[in-house]
Design a protein that fits this description.
The protein has helices at residues 3-12, 33-43, 72-81, 99-106, 120-126, 139-149, 154-162, 181-193; strands at residues 21-26, 50-52, 56-57, 68-69, 86-90, 93-97, 110-114, 130-136, 173-176. The protein is α/β, with parallel strands linked by helices.
């Protein structure tokens, strides 16, 4: 496959991307998905068949997430050109996985991405193999974690927590992230390390 043009060509032909595996780590805002992903990435760094995706997000880069910032115009252009193997909107922002994710999947790798519960059904239409990990925590803990980011007002935090899209099927793993990063991170890393 040749970059973004190859992604668009495969998806336009109605082919599901494979043979690799896409693992979407989903759950409510404030559940700690990025923290657990960073832990698992460090612990599994020697695994050359396991890749951790950097999302494109229409939000400036900051210390809370290792993403690629894009503006709405470039995002819309990427969608129009078929550059993104998966994209969605949530919380007033646009999110996408880049062409490198499709290339890694086509090469037979396992790609782990911070996703959205609302995008899982579309992921299953686009990728031959998809697994989900649901990371969650009690509502009070979620609210405190979101507020600590300092990006949203208290009203925005409450609105964000009211949005709770359902998964289209039971997750392959549920992580209740209420203890130490090491405990929840190890559960995620052990799961990912057992995939092939």
């Amino acid at each position: 496959m040749n970059g973004e043009a190859g992604v668009a060509q495969a998806l336009d032909a109605g082919e599901k991307l494979g043979p690799g595996l896409l693992v979407l780590v989903v759950g409510p805002s404030g559940a700690g998905k990025d923290t657990l992903l960073a832990y698992a990435r460090a612990r599994l760094a020697e695994r050359t068949d396991l890749r951790f995706a950097r999302r494109r997000i229409t939000r400036p880069a900051d210390a809370t997430e290792n993403h690629i910032a894009v503006d709405e115009r470039d995002f819309a252009q990427g969608v129009a050109l078929g550059s993104f193997p998966l994209y969605w909107r949530a919380n007033g922002l646009s999110y996408a996985l880049g062409a490198e994710v499709a290339e890694d999947i086509l090469a037979g790798c396992t790609v782990v991405a911070n996703g959205s519960r609302a995008a899982v059904s579309e992921a299953r239409r686009r990728f031959a193999r998809v697994k989900t990990v649901h990371v969650t925590a009690p509502v009070e803990m979620l609210a405190a974690r979101i507020a600590a980011r300092g990006r949203e007002s208290a009203q925005d935090v409450l609105a964000r927590l009211k949005r709770e899209p359902a998964l289209d099927a039971p997750p392959d793993l549920t992580v209740l992230n209420v203890g130490t990063v090491e405990t929840a991170g190890a559960a995620l890393a052990d799961f990912l390390g057992g995939l092939g």
